Amino acid sequence: MPVRFLISTLKPGVDPAEYEAWVRERDYALVRSLDNYVSYKVHRIRRPIQGAENSTWQYIERIEVKSLEQHDKDLASPAGVALREELYGKFLDRSKNIYFVSDEIE
User: Fold this and answer.
1) d(CA 40, CA 56)
2) Which InterPro entries does the record cross-reference, listed alphabetically (predicted)?
3) What is the C-alpha to C-alpha distance for residues 99 and 85, in angstroms, rounded to an integer?
4) Each residue's pLDDT tens digit, 39-75
5) Rounded Cα gap, residues 83 and 86, in angstroms
6) How many CA atoms within 13 Å lie on the side-chain side of 75?
7) Per-residue b or e along 70-96, where b marks 16 or more CB atoms closer than 10 Å to that residue's CB
8) Distant-in-sequence, close-in-space partners of 45: CB < 8 Å, separation ≥ 6
């Protein structure tokens, strides 16, 4: 199954505790309500990041889904759009995000 990763940075002045509470209360709750998600976790990155010591990344998300196409539909749904508006309106600096998809080697 495909896994999408998102590496992100908070906007200046955002309290990490407030963001992490939002992840637990809003982000995880929505994902758990959707059948396409196999696993979804947000991880706080510990410093230093070897090989990228000057980066500002603070979090990495691991999003395992049954279908990338359905994942994109879920993000485009009214609930997905509202969630992303909260995420990028309040918390994350979208310009510093890195996204990629991986496939497990079995």
Assistant:
1) 22
2) Dimeric_a/b-barrel (IPR011008), HapK (IPR021667)
3) 18
4) 999 999 998 899 988 899 999 999 999 999 999 999 9
5) 5
6) 10
7) ebeebeeeeebeebeeebeeebbeeee
8) 7, 57, 58, 59, 60
DSSP H helices in the chain: 16-22, 28-32, 68-76, 78-86
- DSSP H or E stretch at residue 44: strand 37-44
CATH classification of the domain holding 33 = 3.30.70.100
Q: Report whether 80 contacts 72 (CB < 8 A).
A: no
- Residue with tokens 């995000």, as numbered in its chain: 97
What's the predicted TM-score (pTM) here? 0.90
